[in-house]
Amino acid sequence: MMKKTDGKKSVAREQLLVTASKLFFQNGFHAVGVDMIAAESGITKMTMYKHFPSKDHLIVAILERSDELYWEWFESTIHQVTEPENQLIAIFEAVAERHSSSPMSTFCLYQGVAVEFPFPEHIVNKAAVAHKQSVVKRLESICKQAGLHSPELLALQLFLLLEGFCMSSRFFGADSPVADVVNAAITLIKSYR
């Protein structure tokens, strides 16, 4: 009996995460209320509050899931590439390829958080900042492995290039300059050899 209840909770939690993610993606965080999430998911508000004490906690859980998916994608992208410098380029090629096949795939929930939850002490902002800082640190680690000069600075610049591409793709959609982001990354990396 206990396992069935746990299973139902897991199914309910999963449904809430999927539904809320879709709604936040389509409408923004503040435009979506708990009533809308409950109605769209078919999960009662009482059940929702058993899993997430507040809408903000639900958003944090979505960001944490997004973080896990991001790192699975990131590590699988560089897994087959042996040279660290080529790993950096592979990241940009993969981002460009994802964008070419689905322009909205470069939509970044974390950038949405920066706009809608700008205060650093807010739990949603903290979750987004933690993810972005981990991206910079991982890029820095690869830059160090590649033996590139000023790995901290290069990692930050590569991060800014990724963020800028994600944001520009929101403006330009399918017309976003996909090849340019790869060429810009290659030029930037070469300048730190």
TrEMBL record:
Record has Lipoprotein as a keyword: no
Organism field: Paenibacillus radicis
DNA-binding region: 33-52
Signal sequence interval, chain numbering: none
Protein name (record): TetR/AcrR family transcriptional regulator
Transcription regulation in keyword set: yes
Keyword terms: DNA-binding, Transcription, Transcription regulation
Domain HTH tetR-type positions: 10-70
Highest taxon listed in the record's lineage: Bacteria
Gene3D superfamilies reported in the protein's UniProt record: Tetracycline Repressor, domain 2 (1.10.357.10)
Residue ranges of coiled coil: none
Pfam family, any one: TetR_N
